[in-house]
Every structure is written in structure tokens, then in C-alpha cells.
Design a protein that fits this description.
Blueprint: H1 3-12, E1 16-23, E2 28-32, E3 37-51, E4 54-58, E5 63-66, E6 72-88
Antiparallel strand pairs: 1-6, 2-6, 3-4, 3-5, 3-6
Amino acid sequence: MTIDDARQTLANDGYSDVNEWHDGASVIYPAHEHDEHTAHIVVGGSIFIIMNGEEKEYTPGDRFDIPAHTLHSVRMGSEGCTYIFGEKV
């Protein structure tokens, strides 16, 4: 899936403020939550999401959603990760 395809998919699903983001190798975001529902589509590298006591890896073409006010943490893979994300209030 291309970056443009991922952007269009999230826009078609009603997500606003759709953006591209890149994090370097092994970047970690400690446990946190967001006020809005977020959707992410991986376009390069990999990302590990720890949510509800489970860790799952996502790779190019994978999509994951995080409901508003859901505690989660994030770890980028060894190559970093590029993803498209959108927010829905």
C-alpha cells in the first residue's frame, strides 16, 4: 500500500487530520492514551503496540486502531516505522 492509498483509506473512513509520521529504530513511547480514536496504516518498517496486556507487531499494509482513552505503549521495530494516522473524535 502506498502512502497516498493509506491516506485515502483513512479519509474515506471519516478520519480527519490524516498525517504521515516516521519514527527511528527502536523508538519507544511509554504507556499513554489519546482523547480521540486513532487509526494507523503502516507503510514501511514495523511497529509493536502493547494494548490490553498483549503485544502485536504490525508491518507494511497492516492497519491498527486505538480507541479513545485506551492505555497503550509503542515500540518501533529495528528499521523504524513510517505510518499514516488519522484521528476521529
